[in-house]
Amino acid sequence: MKRIAIIAAAALAVVCCSKKTADQLAEAVKNVSVKCTPEVLEVCRDTVRAQIEVSYPAGYFSKDAQVIVAPYVVWEGGEMALQPFFYQGENVKDNNKVVPSAGGTVKEKIVFPYREAMSLCRLELRSTAFIGGKQVDVPVIKVADGCINLARWADRNGVYAYKADNYQETVVTTAEGQILYDVNSSDVKGSQLGGSSIKKLQSALAEAGSTERISVKGTKIISYASPEGGEELNDKLSEQRSKAANEAWKKIGKGAEAGSTEIKSVGQDWEGFQEAIKASDLEDKDLILRVLSMYSDPAVRESEIKNLSQVYTEIKEQVFPELRRSRFITEMEYQNYSEADLKRLLDHKRLYLLDEEALLRLAALTDSLEMKQTLYRAAAERMGSQRGQYNLAVTSMDKGSFGAADVYLGKLKDQNDPDLLNARGVIALHGGKVDEASKLFEKSGTTEAQRNLGLVALLKGESDKASELLSGSGSRNEAITKIASGDYSGAISLLEKDESAEALYLSAVASARKGDKDGVTKYLYSAFAKNGSLREAAKKDIEFAGFDF
Questions:
Q1: Which residues lie closer than 8 Å to 30 by C-beta, 6 or more apart?
Q2: How far apart are CA 324 and CA 237, in angstroms?
Q3: What confidence tens digit (pLDDT) does each residue in 430-446 have?
Q4: What is the largest CA-CA distance in the chain?
C-alpha cells in the first residue's frame, strides 16, 4: 500500500529563496511531494524499515541552504530520535548530501528497532534550515503511521516431533521346520521327523498352546525338488513329496490343528539353489550365478552347470541334498500388552517386563512430561535406545529446558539425523539465532523443518516464501500469511480451529482489514475473555484505528 502525499509544509520548504513571501512559500510547497514506502510502517524481524522520497521542482532548493532533518518515532508516552540527515545547497562548502537547485528527488532509508509500545505510533520529521546566517525551524511533518506487526502473533515455538515407536499389539510370527529326502525319493524317514528342525517347530507350537496370548493361524507345507534330473520328473517328485509331507504333518503338527493348512508343490527349486550358492563357500560361485542369470530355461541351466564338472560334483555333494525338502511354516499371532496392560504395569512398577518398543509406547501414552522423561531415560540407559535418547531431549524442549535438550541431543550417535538437526534449529531459534536456525532447518529437510523455515521467513518479512512453506500446515502462522496476502476469509477459517486468545485476536485483525465491524467486535471480545491484557494491546494497535470496541 503506497500513497503520495502533498505536504503543506516540508522539511525542504524553507530552503528555497529566503526572500519569498510566506504566501509565495506556501504556494511553492504545493509542488513538493513526499512518499513513504510502506505508507503504514511494518515490523520485520523486530526491526522497522522504510524509505522516504521527497520530490521537488527546479529552483526550489537554494544553493546557499543547509538543512538538518531529524526523523522521530513518536508513540503515547515516548519517542525515539533516529539518525538525522544533513543536506546542503550547491554553494555550501561542506561534506553533506548536495541537493541541486535544478530539482529532483531525495531518498533516505529509515531503520529502527521495534518496541512493543510502538504498535500505534507515527514517523515524523523535525527539521532546521540555515540560510544566510538565519536559522529557521520547520513545522513538524508526519510522514507515516505504524506499526503493523503481524509477526508478533506468530507461534515462535517451532515445530518438532517425537520419534515414533514400533510397538505392535498384535505381532505376527512364524516358526519353521523342515524334512529332507533322499535323491529321487518322497519317503519320509523317521529320523527326519525327530530332527532338531522339527523339534524346534514343535516347541513353538507347545508354547502357543500354553498361553492365551499366542494363537496359531495356519501352516504352509511347501515341497521342492533339487534342480537335477529334468523338470518333468522333478515336478512329479515334488508333488509326491507334498502328499507325503502332509501325512507327516498329521503326526508332528500337534497344536496346529486349529489353524488352516495350505499345501504347495514348487518343483525344481532354482530360487533356493541360487540362495544356497550365494551363501556357499564354493570358489566358482560367481561363475554359477552368472550361468543362472544368462539362461531362463531350466534344462539349459542344468546342462550348463553340468559342464562345470568339478563344480557340479561339489554342488551335488553340498547343495542339492539341502534342496530335496519339505518346509512346514506355521504362522502365529502373539497378542502383546494392550494399552491398558501397559498402564497397569506402570502403576505396579513392573517396567522391567517391557522391551524398548513397549517403553516408547507407554511414554507416548502418558501426559506427564516427568513420567515421559523417566520412561525415555529407561529406554536410553537400559537398552541403548537412540529414539529414547532423542525423545528425552524433546521432553526437555517441551518443558522449556533447551540447554538440557541440547546436552541430550549431543549424546546421540548420528549427529546428522534429520530430526536432530531440526530440533537443534528450534533450540537456536529460541536462543534468538535465527540465521543459524535457518541453516539447520535447511539441512534437516523434514516436514517439521519446512514449517520452521516458513516461520523464519515470516519473521524476516519474506511473505511469499513464508506463504509457500507454510501452505497446508493449518497453523496460526499460515493464517498470518493469508492475512498478509489479503485472504482474510481464508485466514479466519484457519484461525477458528485454534481456540487461543492470539488466534481470536488475529481473526479480529482479518475482520478489520476487510471492514467487518461486527467481526472485529466478536473476535476481540472473545480474545479479551481469554486474555484481558489484549484489551490494552488492541487500543494501541493501528489495525483497529477507527474501530470502536
A1: 6
A2: 10
A3: 999 999 999 999 999 99
A4: 128
